TrEMBL record, chains A, C:
This is 3-oxoacid CoA-transferase subunit A. One of its GO terms (molecular function) is succinyl-CoA:3-oxo-acid CoA-transferase activity. It comes from the Bacteria. SUPFAM superfamilies: NagB/RpiA/CoA transferase-like. It comes from Cytobacillus purgationiresistens. Keywords: Transferase. NCBIfam families: pcaI_scoA_fam. Pfam families: CoA_trans (PF01144).
UniProtKB/TrEMBL annotation, chains B, D:
Belongs to the 3-oxoacid CoA-transferase subunit B family. It holds the Pfam family CoA_trans. GO terms for molecular function: succinyl-CoA:3-oxo-acid CoA-transferase activity. This is 3-oxoacid CoA-transferase. NCBIfam families: pcaJ_scoB_fam. InterPro entries: 3-oxoacid_CoA-transf_B, CoA_trans_fam_I, NagB/RpiA_transferase-like. It comes from Cytobacillus purgationiresistens.
């Protein structure tokens, strides 16, 4: 498994106008080192699939302010006021999906499915324009699968083959994103030898991962800090 | 009452609804407070971001162990972690018994609005729509009126609704309502509150169905 | 979590004419103790959802020969000749699904989805009568979700709350079945105290499980034996 | 050649197709034999019943650790187990590089039939249809003729086809065929086999495209 020396080389495959998935529920489980590098990379027109677009001035929030993001697909934009402001000014497109739909659509994209029917959202504004189907007397709406060119995810431990395990609620969207992109780059806290992770506990088998990088930015109770400072 | 006291009063009343072996999902805000009034070990708390067995933080805060409101939590004995797709599979699939949610508005048929305010920066649906279609029972906990004193329980929601499914119960600092066949029934008054006060502060029509205690 | 004293009481909720899911890939990961009890229970008209209908004269194969099964839904009936013979004689209905579709339909049933679109089977005899949909230029067929009245599954270790972990390839269909039935009974090799299973490694959280029973029948390289003999 | 020798000849030739970091799914029968001719540690074997990292049995047989043919296997260093839905998510989702499958019949456009024989007790599709829509490359390993000496490579399959997708390569004890734009090209003869013999034993039309070695 390719282990990149630095975030810059890990992100060489990310280009303007691509669709990228970025893991995390807020900053928890987000690939903070890779996001940090994205803020330095000359790039624009991105479609970003992520539960949130960071927080105000933090994580993906910086990319929002740098106007690198053309469109955001997520479930909760309320927690970053800058996203709402940019939206009101017409500077960013937003596609709001129920959180379960967001997660399920990624899973479908990674599993070779075209889409699925969910009960969630039926009869609401978020169902407008979506195909309805009645199955066994229950009304569902169609949701298409989601895929991306690149997924940037965060895991806890990786082995040298690229098998991944995740830490507590930092797991969230990362395992699905690992399945649903052409190129998957995992930012990990620790790399152990193959065989050190129990075969029963591996969450993301190595066949989903294309490259890895050791995390430099970590989330602490005092905010995001560089690894060295810990 | 202080804002804090109001919230605790509501949360404490909601806690009375949770008994025996059940799985409960707590939304952001007042719902989060419900957990601390539960002593029954058979009640398990589920959080949409991937944890069954939420408990209070014990000792050191772990920034990577949070609830749906991104606040630090602890993990109960027998807790389990899972990804977001599996977590919402549990919710939509009917495996969560009770969801306790906050609202921006509720109406007299039990519909709620809690994810968007047109023209404002409130654009976050999170897990609300999933919980409404999936949870066996939905309890709303909310202050009875908004900051500017207007009733949050309306004849009809003016904000976009969260689901076509009616909630089962609404608990405020003034009263407890049940929704039966798309009708609001006031079944209980909070201590010191009169039915007249409830009528005055409620835009919605409701049936008086107070239990004799 | 309810732990049943014996297989008979564990199966009280199983009635004639119900749909039941039975875990296992062949005999591997099959709830052998519960199946054994089903062979003694007076019951018929069952619809059984399981990858295979056992092997010839083994596992669910006995139920086939007892004519307790009205319909089988699975992916591979070739390995039990009795199933084919009963089918040719019109004694049993069979619904053959690709193995991935079988697994995915259960998952959909457990996750509150109505169905989904898969590429698998398009243009083959197994797609006959199924709705086609073209999504982004690719043709898919619609597959409805699968649910059952009761699921009989096998796990390795359970804790006293009902959290489950599985053993190697004995995992197979069991975790999905645990999500997709009104009543889920888990046959387990071992019950440990709550807290003994790592929260990161639990595969089936307890909210899916309704009752448990200690396994009496186990699969060895010499065949199925009673636990005591081991 | 004995049946065994024929099978090993075919499996050994198929093994030559597996090089570098790749994930390979092996079907039942001859495909199972391919693994033993692979020494490259970068090749990982996936089995549809929930294991990435299949290896030979080492020491004691574990009856709960089996491959798609329900035969005992071992687990490689770095192996992982997963459920059947996730396993087929890998397959359908394009995460398996190569599938090696047996067939009942193949035709001159590369279509195959390997799951049903009308009127007979062969009614088992297993993972075959999923592998054909999902694997990036599909290699068929099969004896050239059936037990009664008839060609298994036909102008058109008479049994129900497994997929509308053509396989990429067919390896028999007589020859290696590639399928290019729905046409069969014979690219290699097995040692001691003449093109005339292949023509004689093959019902299908094919193009001669033998590489000069």
């Amino acid at each position: 498994m390719k282990v990149y020396e630095n975030a810059k080389s890990a992100l060489e495959s990310v280009k303007s106008n691509q669709t990228i998935m970025v893991g995390g529920f807020g900053l928890v489980g987000a690939p903070l080192t890779l996001i940090d590098e994205l803020t330095r990379k000359e790039i624009d027109g991105l479609t970003v699939i992520s539960n949130n677009l960071g927080e105000k001035g933090k994580g993906l929030g910086i990319l929002v302010n740098q106007k690198k993001i053309k469109k955001g697909i997520g479930s909760y934009f309320t927690s970053n006021r800058d996203v709402g402001d940019a939206y009101q000014k017409g500077e960013i497109e937003l596609q709001l999906l129920p959180q379960g739909t967001l997660a399920e659509s990624m899973r479908a994209g990674g599993a070779g499915l075209g889409g699925y029917y969910t009960k969630t959202g039926v009869g609401t504004d978020l169902a407008k324009g979506k195909e309805e189907k009645v199955i066994d007397g229950i009304t569902y709406i169609f949701e298409p699968a989601l895929r991306a060119n690149v997924a940037l995810i965060r895991a806890w431990k990786a082995d040298t083959l690229g098998n991944l395990v995740f830490y507590k609620t930092a797991r969230n969207f990362n395992p699905m994103m690992a399945t649903a992109a052409d190129i998957v780059i995992a930012e990990v806290d620790e790399i152990v030898e193959a065989g050190e992770l129990s075969p029963e506990e591996i969450v993301t088998p190595h066949l989903f991962v294309d490259g890895m990088i050791k995390a430099q930015k970590i989330l602490t109770k005092d905010g995001v800090i560089d690894h060295e400072q810990k | 009452m202080s804002k804090n006291e109001v919230q605790e009063l509501i949360a404490k009343r909601a806690a009375q609804e949770l008994k025996g072996r059940c799985v409960v999902n707590l939304g952001i805000g007042i719902p989060t407070l419900v957990a601390k009034f539960i002593e029954d070990e058979n009640v398990s708390f589920h959080t949409e971001n991937g944890l069954l067995g939420v408990s209070d933080v014990e000792g050191v805060i772990d920034p990577n162990l949070v609830n749906a409101g991104k606040l630090p939590v602890g993990e109960a004995v027998g807790a389990s972690f899972f990804n977001s797709a599996d977590s919402f599979g549990m919710i939509r699939g009917g495996h969560v018994d009770i969801a306790i949610l906050g609202v921006l508005q509720a109406d007299q048929t039990g519909l709620i609005a809690n994810w968007a305010v047109p023209g404002k920066n409130i654009m976050g649906v999170g897990g609300a729509m999933d919980l409404l279609v999936g949870a066996k029972k939905v309890i709303v906990t909310t202050t009875h009126t908004s900051k500017d004193g207007k009733s949050k329980i309306l004849k009809e929601c003016t904000y976009p609704i969260t689901s076509t499914r009616s909630v089962d119960m609404i608990i405020t600092e003034l009263a407890v309502f049940e929704v039966v066949e798309k009708q609001l029934r006031c079944i209980e008054l909070m201590p010191g509150v009169t039915i007249e006060e409830v009528r005055e502060k409620t835009e919605a029509d409701f049936i008086e169905d107070l239990l004799v205690v």
